[in-house]
Design a protein that fits this description.
The chain has a 7-stranded parallel beta sheet, with helices on both faces. Strands 10-11-12-7-13-14 form a 6-stranded mixed beta sheet, with helices on one face. It is globular. Helices cover 32% and strands 28% of the residues. With 376 residues, it is an alpha/beta fold.
């Protein structure tokens, strides 16, 4: 199979790693497009082509997409529709990382009667967590509850909010401010961000978790009518939620998001020494017995191809690269709308990119299914 020419829109932290992962295989000819020349310069690697283009200009993107098999959006959520429209016009597969609900609905509409694949929300959450959560859900004869918890956390927190920036600040603020999809008492509903508070401990470490927006992706629609309770929670160290609620709600910064972004980016350092924690619990009936099954995945920063990449870069990039890889090899449909939860977990973890979530020693459950995994 000849190398696939693909375009990555966005030369930020995630876009750079996607490009590095794909290029290292030799199976992809990668071009990164961005309007920021400095970001493109930082993204330059052997074998990667860069091009300066106004990525908010749909016509300009269509021109750049000529001859490309796929476009992968690592751009901010507000550019999703523009990039997806350009992909459809150019006849290219479309993949993105967005957690934004409205833009995902627009992508789904574009996928109707399309001759190429449209796969939004291919990152960590939504993305991998949808795949892993659905894998637990289908083990039950009658599913009562499914709770997905995901956190990208500093390994060595030192400030009062016990947090360091690890990914898009705009995306983080979106999660904390926008209404959250959920299923409560069997009915799809919207719940408030920063509510639904809970605490838990894993291996001697205390955590808190609370509602945030966008992490469920299309899973709420897929499981509607099949589960009594479905929730997505962001994981942080204890005390973080209360400080963010003070800033966003009590001081009104949720209505001044530009100022909130400036505050975070000025005062909160970036770190590559992070850990991504995924903790999923499902309960219901199996063979007439009430049971609970939990799955834990943990990924830390690692060196790949001679570069140190953060855990959030690794997990987010691995998700979208694995989805593209499976479209390329025929494991996933090459046209129409692709839901992340429609991807079998075993197939995802066996993929060369999805394997970043899996440990070297994989076990099997008594039923022959892949066991919940802990990766370091």
């Amino acid at each position: 199979m000849t190398a696939w020419p693909v375009l990555i829109v966005g030369a930020g932290k995630i876009g750079r790693m996607i490009a590095s992962l794909l290029t290292a295989t030799g199976d992809y000819e990668v071009t990164i497009a961005d309007r920021d020349a400095l970001a493109l310069a930082a993204a330059t690697r052997p074998g990667i082509t860069t091009i300066t283009v106004d990525v908010s200009n749909e016509d300009a993107l269509v021109k750049v997409l000529q001859g490309k098999k796929a476009v992968l959006s690592a751009a901010p959520f507000f550019l999703t529709e523009t990039i997806a429209n350009a992909a459809k016009r150019a006849g290219a597969h479309y993949l993105d990382l967005t957690e934004d609900v409205a833009s995902t609905k627009a992508v789904k509409a574009l996928a109707k009667n399309s001759q190429t694949a449209f796969a939004p929300q291919c990152g960590l959450a939504p993305g991998f967590v949808s795949i892993a959560g659905h894998d637990l859900a289908v083990r039950f004869d009658d599913l009562d509850s499914l709770t997905l918890r995901v956190g990208a956390l500093p390994r060595y927190p030192t400030n009062a909010i016990k947090y360091n920036l690890t990914w898009s600040t705009d995306g983080l603020i979106n999660e904390y401010c926008n209404a959250c999809e959920a299923i409560v008492d069997g009915e799809p509903t919207m719940v408030q961000p920063l509510e639904g508070y809970e605490t838990f401990s894993l291996e001697g470490v205390d955590y808190e978790a609370f509602n945030t927006s966008g992490g469920l992706g299309s899973l709420a629609e897929t499981l509607s009518g099949k589960v009594r309770s479905l929730r997505y929670l962001t994981v942080r160290y204890p005390g973080h939620r209360d400080i963010m609620r003070l800033l966003l709600q009590d001081l009104g910064l949720r209505d001044r998001r530009d100022l909130m972004r400036d505050v975070l980016e000025t005062a909160v350092p970036v770190t590559r020494q992070d850990v991504v924690l995924v903790f999923i619990t499902a309960s219901g009936t199996i063979g007439g017995s009430c049971e609970q099954i939990s799955a834990i995945y943990r990924v830390t920063a690692k060196e790949i191809a001679g570069e140190l990449w953060s855990a959030i870069q690794t997990t987010t990039s691995a998700g979208i690269c694995a989805t593209l890889d499976m479209i390329r090899d025929g494991s996933l449909a090459a046209k129409g709308f692709i839901r992340q939860e429609g991807i079998p977990l075993a197939r995802f973890l066996q993929n060369r990119f999805g394997s970043h979530f899996a440990p070297e020693n994989e076990g099997k459950s008594p039923a022959g299914e892949r066991k919940p995994l802990v990766a370091a």
